[in-house]
Amino acid sequence: MTFTVSMTSTSTHSLPCSSYDNIFMNNQSSQCQNDSSGTPNATICPMNEQLLSVVLTIFYSVIFIVGLVGNIIALYIFLGIHHKRNSIQIYLLNVAIADLLLIFCLPFRILYHVNKNIWTLGVILCRTVGTLFYMNMYISIILLGLISLDRYIKINRSIHQQKALTTKQSIYICCTVWAVAIIGFLTMIISTLKKGGHNSTMCFHYRDKHNAKGEAIFNYILVIVFWLIFLLLILSYIKIASYLLKISKRRVNFPNSGKYHTTARNSFIVLIIFTICFVPYHAFRFIYITSQLKTTPCYWKEIFHNINEIMLVLSSFNSCFDPVMYFLMSSNIRKIIYQLLSRRFQGESSRSESTSEFRAGHSPHDTSVSVKFNQHLRVL
């Protein structure tokens, strides 16, 4: 993870640099200085982040607004399912929760960049926000992988078998994922409390890990986990799509044969979103983490930091795309939203025509819509 805190009080931030970095700094007014909050023998690299801060502020603000609205609507729909949920619904509900928790971290990042990259809320909150951000990002990644695996299993198992096994198991799996994540979160916070430097004013920033190799190894493990999940998604959705396409060809004369082709096409939506949002970030992570372990020139540290921040913004867009994924992949989600909007508009129309006709649950039409709404919820 890249969040950290380091002593500074200006909008031009500094990073640890090596003694031979002066060849990259001949045109800069600042020189390498001792790092008061870093490791012994470490020095400070000046960095100008004014343009980057503006870009990050704009994009994080868009992600916050769009993601907040989309995931609240998704959560409302999932929580509106009062009957026994299936395994996919369990996973999607947890994805929506993880996305919302990540989105709630964004105002702190926005405030930090608006404040010219000066953190005034203390190292504990910096560590808390940073850890929550990454924790929920990887929870979403793991859950999306589990969704692809679950869909593949459902295709290869009988309906009765999958109902008997996967719903309860998905609850246990989600609880395990959250439990492990919370334990890791608490471990990070406790380690921060044991360290000093609580007057630091830099957060969400590059730092060397010469004396934190354990943290670097943990970050390597997260990257490896991501690529394993990505491989799982590729294999699962290729299998799903090929299976559905075969069925659509066999049942070409059936009235609903086209739905198999549509489902096969939509099966790649998760993979496309996953690839766009997460692959660039994790493809760069190996380079980024390795640079933190080595003696890297200031020139390259600034480049690596800027690229990492841009890739991180791209990964954050997943919180906006997930609600779109729910809508596109599930015809039941679309029907529920259409019916909710239909009931709203029809209710307003009824009030304008005759107040006596508007009695919730009493008219045959409203009863029909309610029945259909519940039916769609049952099969979601």
From TrEMBL:
<feature type="transmembrane region" description="Helical">
    <location>
        <begin position="310"/>
        <end position="329"/>
    </location>
</feature>
<feature type="transmembrane region" description="Helical">
    <location>
        <begin position="170"/>
        <end position="190"/>
    </location>
</feature>
<keyword id="KW-1133">Transmembrane helix</keyword>
<comment type="similarity">
    <text>Belongs to the G-protein coupled receptor 1 family.</text>
</comment>
<feature type="domain" description="G-protein coupled receptors family 1 profile">
    <location>
        <begin position="70"/>
        <end position="326"/>
    </location>
</feature>
<comment type="function">
    <text>G-protein-coupled receptor of lysophosphatidylserine (LysoPS) that plays different roles in immune response. Acts a damage-sensing receptor that triggers tissue repair upon recognition of dying neutrophils. Mechanistically, apoptotic neutrophils release lysophosphatydilserine that are recognized by type 3 innate lymphoid cells (ILC3s) via GPR34, which activates downstream PI3K-AKT and RAS-ERK signaling pathways leading to STAT3 activation and IL-22 production. Plays an important role in microglial function, controlling morphology and phagocytosis.</text>
</comment>
<feature type="transmembrane region" description="Helical">
    <location>
        <begin position="217"/>
        <end position="245"/>
    </location>
</feature>
<keyword id="KW-1015">Disulfide bond</keyword>
<keyword id="KW-0472">Membrane</keyword>
<keyword id="KW-0807">Transducer</keyword>
<keyword id="KW-0325">Glycoprotein</keyword>
<feature type="transmembrane region" description="Helical">
    <location>
        <begin position="91"/>
        <end position="112"/>
    </location>
</feature>
<feature type="transmembrane region" description="Helical">
    <location>
        <begin position="266"/>
        <end position="290"/>
    </location>
</feature>
<feature type="transmembrane region" description="Helical">
    <location>
        <begin position="58"/>
        <end position="79"/>
    </location>
</feature>
<keyword id="KW-0297">G-protein coupled receptor</keyword>
<dbReference type="InterPro" id="IPR000276">
    <property type="entry name" value="GPCR_Rhodpsn"/>
</dbReference>
<dbReference type="GO" id="GO:0045028">
    <property type="term" value="F:G protein-coupled purinergic nucleotide receptor activity"/>
</dbReference>
<feature type="transmembrane region" description="Helical">
    <location>
        <begin position="118"/>
        <end position="149"/>
    </location>
</feature>
<keyword id="KW-0812">Transmembrane</keyword>
<protein>
    <recommendedName>
        <fullName>Probable G-protein coupled receptor 34</fullName>
    </recommendedName>
</protein>
<dbReference type="Pfam" id="PF00001">
    <property type="entry name" value="7tm_1"/>
</dbReference>
<dbReference type="InterPro" id="IPR017452">
    <property type="entry name" value="GPCR_Rhodpsn_7TM"/>
</dbReference>
<dbReference type="GO" id="GO:0005886">
    <property type="term" value="C:plasma membrane"/>
</dbReference>
<keyword id="KW-0675">Receptor</keyword>
<keyword id="KW-1003">Cell membrane</keyword>
